[in-house]
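Why does residue order matter? Because the sequence determines the fold. Keep that principle in mind as you read this record.
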Amino acid sequence: MAHRICIIGTGYVGLVSGTAFAATGNNVVCVDIDKEKVEKLNKAIPTIYEPGLETLLQKNVKDGRLRFTTNLEEAVIHSRIIFLCLPTPPNEDGSADLTHLLKVVEQIAKIFKHHNISEHRVIVNKSTVPVGTADKVKKIFNEVYPGNNVDVASNPEFLREGFAVEDSMKPERIIIGTRSKLAEEVLRDLYEPFVRSGNPIYVFDERTAEVVKYAANAFLATKISFMNDLSAFCEAVGADIEKVRIGIGSDSRIGKRFLFAGIGFGGSCFPKDLRALINTAEEVGTPLTIAKATYEVNQRQIQRFTQKILNHFNGNVQNLKFALWGLSFKPNTDDVREAPSFKVIDTLLEKGAKIIAYDPEAMENTKKIYGKKIQYAQDMYSCLQNANALIIATEWTVFRNPDFPKMKSLMKSPIIFDGRNLYTFDEMEHYGFEYICIGRRKI
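Structure:
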């Protein structure tokens, strides 16, 4: 059965999720306060870069299953399922800021009361929220509109930026947090088309579902930080972190993914969610020592990499020109939130260096942050002209097999600081580059 769905928030999660729901035959309306953004989306113009999204967006807007509006009231009164896909940015202490989310919930409750909505509705938290948020949402409804017929559920998302469309259409698992049999029935029916190959739908209570999201991100971040921490040891003893990765990744108990050493993780999820989990755990008196260490190692890793650059030039990079490949926090996205590249840029600018950067998708978002403080290249090779060194901060596929002779001819000094371990020492030696990477050294 086609469902009437409202998605509140057209950021990364809201836009991808809403488009995916429309693609399975549901009638979806997405709400955002940004009028310009809504106008673009109604013309099927994506406001984020995500492989496969544009085609899916265009088809569903054209077929009338997906539309966008700034009118919250109109959208919610006609929808059976309402997804909250709103930002929960960190406060100064690291806790998640629920101000915007709870304000919207109160608005919805008042709209329901004003229209005397008696039909069963399901309010679904898809935002990443601390434990107990579903209870707070239900409390608001009960206070504003006593006797309401509203169920509140948690439905954390596990989308990988760069693979979000694939993850939406073919999820590994669906997590639903609800103690309401009716809400469970509605959400199972909604998600049934996405799991026809047999992937599971797990139904837990709301608080357990809320913890699952934070626990998943914290554990994946821990794997990354473990390898980054180990990379310093490998450099010290002359071992190769890449071969260590292969050696331990072949153990099925460990797995091959999230074992790549680099300059640290970024993005809108791992850093923010780790801090929120750490803060909540401390509030209830059960500090998470491993989670805290994971966050601290990540902060230290980017500093270690930047220090490698400074040390190579004896601490003096005044007026040196650095080419930078990669601005987004990971490949296949234009997302620059918490991007490690920005921390490198900040340090080098502070020391008086000049930066010229190139990224296949994240240039416009970077310009919003840095403006004219750095230069922007039209392609990866023009970026190298007269550069004193190249810094690689994001492992875009296009950077993996470049024209090394051409690179060397353009650069003032053939030096590469590789924060993603894209190349081997043998090929760098063959082409005459000085090569500084992560967790490896020439012996």
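The two ends are 64 Å apart (CA to CA).
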